[in-house]
């Protein structure tokens, strides 16, 4: 019986993209654009129009961090808010000094000096960042910033270094795109902005109505409202419709969602969020799959509070919204020590009125305040953030994962073990146990340790599980090769949380079999836009005729929503990259190349664009461009396993076997868990080194037993090496795990027939 000889396996990213098309890049692009109101009143009047009738509120707003989220640089601001920079700050090959009197930053190297005027200032609560105009209308964040609390200057980009274990982390050069105001910062620092981006020249003609977050950002265009009350006769009652968005008539969820776009680490789905609309119709949300969080969900990086807020039991109750504790201008309402714990009224009246037995601290001390234990403050990139999850201290997670805990933030002279003993002595119910269990699942999934897969699936099947931990595990399961995950993911497309449903739809795109396609097709008709576009993206490679007829119309509309979402951000690298992946999945390779090339122009250091562009070039027969693109990616990161793997495959295709072999060896060295690199080395070495070939094939099969091709290949080469009994044992192991694999069935039958012939001949 004839059996199929193993072939070099396409590297990840060649037949199927390696890098996920729904990558959630951490550019904060939640645009607060005009809310939807009737055309006749859809005019902006500006915040000064509010002052006549709302003088007190205007004064509170205009001096708040919302009102001053951005402001022009002036000598008065420099004199009252800043101190002189004492020493130059060195970053890379340059040194920088801010000259406050002249309103500029000087950049120097060995040969040149360049002066950049300071025109705008952002922030002021923790840090002042400074903006300067560059060519083509770019407004760029300058490389030096000012720490308000410490009254010192620092390197802007170096402050944001993550230091994730053994991962390389390098500060950006200050003129790179992520530090361009027009691209990345605009939505949360000015109001009624028109970006006016010209893709042909990569230039901006950006304008905005007011710096800072103004009244109309939350209340909508106010010209009709102003006119209504100016024209209203004295003593006449105002009509029910005052032609303004009134936040007091909103639901709790609407008020929280209104704050979310600026206070979340997220990725945008649309660019037209209006107050009163639903967050997940316009944005996705980053969760604990991201290394900016510790495995237990505490902040490691700059996370803007909305993720941790959704973890809070207080928020989940549906009774607490942001303006319970904060004024509309962003001020905290309970700063005075005498009323500090009133923030937790009325829900926790018993603990507020008798705090000492609960806090185990003396009344009036900082430790007796609710927020000291439940909302501890941490710092990253000179920015201080309160933990809005409101969970109690869990020093056990500090011991396990080095995440911060409130006890040791105050008692810095004590150890986490000491704090853990204190907590366990005070609370006998071991509330830390479920936190540790959830964190262990996140930690294992991040590391690709799927021994805990049964526990992960059990967690996802539970009815009382948390939304944020659920969505994190669903996203991390995208890298899990086990088939057991698919039924669980399909069930989660019916979850109560649109965030979980969207993540499940995204992950189901990893295997487009009939059950997954049916679940995704149904998800394209979901009530939330986020779910619809994630499902549409996952179905990108599936012809419309293959979808259930009842869902085709929904799928078409969802696909249009997805492309509209990506096309709405022509200056965003991630939009072009994701759109390129979408076109590639649909075999529209010329369009994919166009988008990948656009993403390269916008962010030349983003390696994935070069790898995926190479796949598209190869499909078009442009292997010279494919090789050049992969070699450029290799220059960016010589140890990137995916680049090495793809380049090895391309070189093998071009007949450059020796070079291809070296690439596969380097790929496996860079990632010792790469079954693909081992497999391709096994196939390549089979022609000249049978023993080494078998070693690599066995390793591939051991690393990824859920891929029947690897075990099949190992058995095939064992047979070719004359080791029939070992080959039979190997192929039977594959058949037991993958009874549907046709090549393995044919090989097993052939081997068994050969064994029978041998026995007969011997007899």
What does this structure look like?
The protein has 763 residues and is α+β, with helices and mostly antiparallel strands. The protein has a domain at 690-763: Serine Threonine Protein Phosphatase 5, Tetratricopeptide repeat. Helix content is 45%, strand content 9%. It contains 35 helices and 18 strands. The strands form 6 sheets. Strands 1, 6, 7, 8, 9 and 10 form a 6-stranded antiparallel beta sheet that branches. Strand 12 and strand 13 (203-204) form a beta hairpin. Helix 27 packs parallel to helix 29 (641-653) and helix 32 (690-703) packs antiparallel against helix 33 (708-720). The longest helix is centred in the C-terminal third of the chain and has 21 residues, at 742-762. The radius of gyration is 29 Å and the shape is globular.
Shape: globular
End-to-end span in angstroms? 22 Å
Low-confidence stretches: 11-41
How much helix is in the residues? 40-55%
Assembly type of the chains comes to single chain
CATH architecture call of the domain at 690-763: Alpha Horseshoe
Question: Radius of gyration in whole Å, from Cα?
Answer: 29 Å
Supply the number of helical segments: 35
Q: How many runs of DSSP E, i.e. beta strands?
A: 18
Per CATH, the class of the domain at 690-763 reads Mainly Alpha
Q: Biggest sheet, in brief?
A: 6 strands, antiparallel
Instruction: Name the beta content range.
Output: 5-15%
- CATH topology (level 3) name of the domain at 690-763: Serine Threonine Protein Phosphatase 5, Tetratricopeptide repeat
Structural class label: alpha+beta
Overall pLDDT score:
91
- Looking at this structure, what is the CATH superfamily of the domain at 690-763? Tetratricopeptide repeat domain
């Amino acid at each position: 019986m004839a059996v199929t000889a193993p072939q070099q396996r396409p590297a990840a990213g060649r037949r199927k993209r390696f890098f996920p098309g729904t990558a959630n890049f951490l550019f904060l692009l939640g645009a607060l654009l005009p809310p939807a109101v009737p055309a006749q009143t859809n005019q902006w009047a500006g915040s000064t129009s509010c002052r006549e009738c709302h003088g007190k509120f205007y004064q509170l707003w205009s001096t708040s961090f919302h009102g001053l989220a951005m402001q022009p640089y002036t000598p008065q601001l420099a004199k009252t808010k800043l101190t002189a920079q004492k020493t130059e700050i060195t970053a890379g090959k340059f040194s920088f000094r801010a000259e406050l009197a002249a309103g500029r930053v000087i950049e120097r190297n060995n040969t040149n000096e360049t002066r950049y005027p300071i025109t705008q200032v952002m922030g002021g609560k923790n840090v002042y960042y400074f903006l300067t105009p560059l060519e083509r209308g770019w407004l760029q964040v300058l490389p030096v910033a000012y720490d308000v609390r410490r009254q010192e200057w620092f390197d802007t980009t170096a402050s944001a270094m993550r230091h994730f274990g053994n991962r390389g982390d390098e500060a950006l050069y200050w003129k790179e795109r992520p530090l361009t105001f027009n691209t990345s910062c605009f939505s949360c620092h000015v109001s009624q902005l028109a970006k006016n981006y010209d893709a042909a020249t990569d230039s901006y003609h950006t304008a905005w109505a007011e710096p800072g977050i103004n009244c109309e950002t939350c209340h909508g265009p106010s010209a009709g409202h102003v006119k209504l009350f100016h024209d209203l006769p004295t003593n006449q009652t105002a009509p029910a419709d005052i032609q303004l968005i009134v936040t007091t008539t909103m639901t709790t969820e609407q008020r929280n969602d209104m704050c979310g776009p600026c206070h979340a680490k997220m990725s945008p789905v649309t660019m037209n969020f209006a107050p009163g609309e639903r967050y997940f119709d316009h944005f996705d949300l980053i969760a604990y799959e991201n290394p900016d969080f510790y495995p237990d969900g505490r902040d490691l990086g700059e996370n803007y509070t909305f993720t941790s807020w959704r973890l809070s039991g207080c928020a989940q109750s549906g009774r607490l919204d942001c303006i319970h504790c904060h004024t509309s201008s962003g001020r905290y309402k309970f700063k005075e020590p005498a009323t500090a714990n009133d923030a937790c009224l009325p829900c926790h009246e018993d603990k507020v009125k008798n705090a000492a037995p609960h806090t185990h601290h003396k009344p009036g001390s900082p430790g007796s305040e609710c927020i000291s234990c439940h909302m501890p403050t941490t710092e990253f990139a000179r920015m201080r953030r309160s933990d809005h999850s409101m969970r109690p201290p869990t020093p056990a997670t500090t011991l396990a994962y080095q995440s911060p805990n409130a006890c040791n933030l105050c008692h810095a002279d004590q150890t986490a073990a000491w704090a853990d003993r204190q907590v366990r002595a005070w609370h006998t119910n071991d509330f830390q146990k479920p936190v540790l269990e959830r964190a262990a699942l996140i930690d294992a999934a991040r590391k690709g340790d799927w021994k805990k897969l049964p526990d992960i699936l059990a967690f996802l099947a539970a009815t009382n599980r948390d939304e944020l931990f659920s969505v994190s595990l669903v996203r991390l399961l995208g890298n899990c090769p086990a088939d057991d995950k698919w039924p669980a993911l399909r069930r989660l497309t019916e979850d109560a949380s649109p965030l979980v449903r969207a993540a499940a739809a995204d992950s189901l795109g990893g295997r487009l079999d009939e059950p997954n396609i049916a679940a995704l097709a149904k998800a394209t008709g979901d009530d939330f836009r986020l779910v619809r576009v994630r499902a549409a993206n996952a179905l990108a490679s599936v012809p419309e005729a293959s979808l259930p007829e009842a869902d085709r119309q929904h799928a078409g509309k969802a696909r249009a929503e997805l492309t509209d979402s990506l096309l709405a951000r022509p200056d965003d690298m991630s939009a072009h990259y994701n759109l390129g992946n979408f076109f590639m999945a649909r075999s529209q390779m010329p369009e994919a190349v166009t988008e990948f090339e656009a993403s390269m122009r916008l962010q030349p250091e983003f390696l994935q664009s070069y790898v995926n562009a190479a796949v598209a070039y190869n499909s078009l027969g442009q292997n010279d461009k494919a090789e050049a693109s992969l070699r450029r990616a290799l220059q960016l990161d010589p140890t990137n396993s995916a680049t090495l793997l793809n380049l090895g495959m391309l070189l093998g295709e071009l007949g450059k076997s020796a070079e291809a072999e070296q690439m596969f060896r380097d790929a496996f060295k860079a990632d010792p868990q790469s079954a693909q690199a081992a497999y391709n080395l096994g196939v390549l070495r089979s022609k000249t080194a049978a023993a080494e070939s078998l070693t690599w094939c066995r390793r591939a099969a051991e690393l990824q037993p859920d891929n029947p091709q690897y075990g099949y290949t190992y058995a095939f080469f064992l047979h070719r090496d004359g080791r029939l009994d070992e080959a039979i044992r190997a192929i039977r192991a594959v058949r037991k795990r993958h009874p549907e694999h046709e090549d393995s069935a044919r090989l097993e039958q052939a081997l068994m027939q050969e064994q029978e012939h041998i026995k007969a001949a011997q007899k």
